[in-house]
Amino acid sequence: MTLSAADFAFVSALVRRESSIVLGPGKEYLVEARLIPVARQTGAASVAEFLAAIQRHPDPVGQSRIVDALTTNETSWFRDQDPFTALTTQVLPELIANRAANRHIRVWSAACSSGQEPYSLAIALRETLPAGWTYEILGTDISGEMIERAERGEFSQVEVNRGLPVQKLVHNFERVGAHWRVMPALRRTVTFQRMNLTAPLPALPPFDVIFLRNVLIYFDVETKRSVLRSMGRLLRPDGWLFLGAAETTIGVDDNYERVVAGRTSAYRLRAAVPVGTAGKG
Amino acid sequence: MSVQYVPTVADLNEIVEQVWASYLDPEGVNPLIPVESAADASDIHASVSITGSWHGHVVVACSNAAGKLAAAAFLAMEPEEVTEADLIDVLGELANIVGGNVKSMLPAGCFVSLPHVVSAPAQANHWPAAVQVCELAGLWSGESIAFSMWQSRELTGEAAA
Amino acid sequence: MHAIVIDDSRAMRLILRRILGQLGFDVVEAEDGQAALNVLEGMEQKPDLALVDWNMPNMNGLEFVTAARDNPQLREMTLVMVTTESEQSQIVRALAAGAHEYVIKPFTSGAMVEKLALLGLVPSGASL
């Protein structure tokens, strides 16, 4: 452990400012481990030297590399399984019944990291939607580096081992050198965009389903509330929001209600109370 | 002859990184640090031979200390508990994993041999009939490890592996 | 739950045994496909799971999977290939022969747990 308290404070302030993610005490080890490769790329002899240089001469590229290194996590395909099972067995059948007119489904994978979640969603929709239906997936992440990686759609052997059923691997990916690349037909259904969920969100057509998983846990309650409020405006009135297993809207934003979705929970916007029937009792 | 894809040092690096992430450094805190050459990575050589549409060898060479560290990490034991049998097993399996992944990048129809482990090789160059295609040398906890690929010369020069 | 680990590398068998042991499996080992068939023949209760390497002396993993599929006594056993063979064509061959899942070496212990969860052999969300 060579990271000084001052260096740790600098990094945690930077990461909090850029991403609203809080790196509390005890994360010094994580910070140092994640910054070793970043420091090495810049030619610095150590993390301490790298951080000293960047504090002397603030450099946006170096700063964004620090934020990237600390805000990205290894992700699995069909992570946690249950939300995907709920999507294919409950949510999509209901949406298929409600969207017979335009036969199109829009899904947002917010904080998509290196792309496993949006591509998993694309595989699930492709396998579940009846013929004649179309879908589009938007993947967003705060990290520009992650968005570039996700757009390439190439994954290492270790990455495709993680939670991806082998039948789905051989149907949706092709081997390219040491990697596996998402097949073009699937790749075309997913678009990626860099987005900071805590900043004002761009204007987007509304979504039928939003996956916002394992993101809110990093935010304080005010930030959680503001993110949930702005995402609620981009969710169709009969849409579905999926959060991480340790996350909830309860006690944060009363515009959502928790509903059972298969073996897990999802969140839906409370129906606006029609004018004239709002009895106060 | 058709043009064949031959894996590069970047491919070797990607495979090696995955081996580190899986077995030798799952926490991501003790990576292999690339160096120009690992001259003292010569106590133990583990290799597999590839035959079929491509002929050659994939070699893992390391110092005794690096080998013990690798075996200890692989087998979840302390380096001082590592026996010679452990060392041979683990380095053989490392050569098998790296060689198997290299094979998957080569044209179809190649086969990987069972691993062959030699301690204290007398000379660095085992295969007079093969030329080195690429090498990835690095320091791990200050100890030398090198991964290399050797391609057999065309036709009659094939040496026994 | 019972499992058999079939790999000619003792180091790999130890890694797999460690992961399965932590998940509560009773584990037996075999160093090639033929040895595995011999061990299985003598077992009263057949394992729920076999982790099978591909390249092994005597009988390779593909031959073992084919033999296991053809043996009515082993029909309930879930077959997972654990191998460096990672060309698409090889994976398709193994699936056609009867393998249920496929783990490419190198793999992290987390990846192995996730694959077993996909097969319903450990609870979804299990970790070591």
From TrEMBL, chain A:
Tree of life domain: Bacteria
Biological process terms in GO annotation: methylation
InterPro entries, A to Z: Bact_Chemotaxis_MeTrfase, CheR_C, CheR_MeTrfase, CheR_N, CheR_N_sf, SAM-dependent_MTases_sf
Keywords assigned by UniProt, alphabetized: Methyltransferase, S-adenosyl-L-methionine, Transferase
Keyword Methyltransferase: yes
Species for this entry: Micromonospora pattaloongensis
Annotated PROSITE patterns: CHER
EC numbers for this chain: 2.1.1.80
Domain CheR-type methyltransferase: 1-272
Broad enzyme group: transferase
Protein's UniProt keywords contain Nucleus: no
CDD domains from the UniProt entry: AdoMet_MTases
Enzymatic reactions: L-glutamyl-[protein] + S-adenosyl-L-methionine = [protein]-L-glutamate 5-O-methyl ester + S-adenosyl-L-homocysteine
GO molecular function: protein-glutamate O-methyltransferase activity
The protein's name: protein-glutamate O-methyltransferase
Pfam families to which the protein is assigned, alphabetical: CheR, CheR_N
From TrEMBL, chain B:
InterPro entries (UniProt xref): CheC-like_sf (IPR028976), CheX-like_dom (IPR028051)
GO BP terms: chemotaxis
Keyword Protease: no
Record-linked SUPFAM superfamilies: CheC-like
Keywords recorded for this protein, A-Z: Chemotaxis
Occurrences of domain Chemotaxis phosphatase CheX-like (ranges): 46-122
UniProt protein name: Chemotaxis protein CheX
Organism: Micromonospora pattaloongensis
Record lineage: Bacteria, Bacillati, Actinomycetota, Actinomycetes, Micromonosporales
Automatic annotation (TrEMBL), chain C:
One Pfam family of this chain: Response_reg
Modified residues (4-aspartylphosphate): D53
Keywords: Phosphoprotein
Segments forming domain Response regulatory: 2-120
GO biological-process terms attached to the record: phosphorelay signal transduction system
Matching PROSITE patterns: RESPONSE_REGULATORY
Protein's recorded name: Two-component system, chemotaxis family, response regulator CheY
Organism of provenance: Micromonospora pattaloongensis
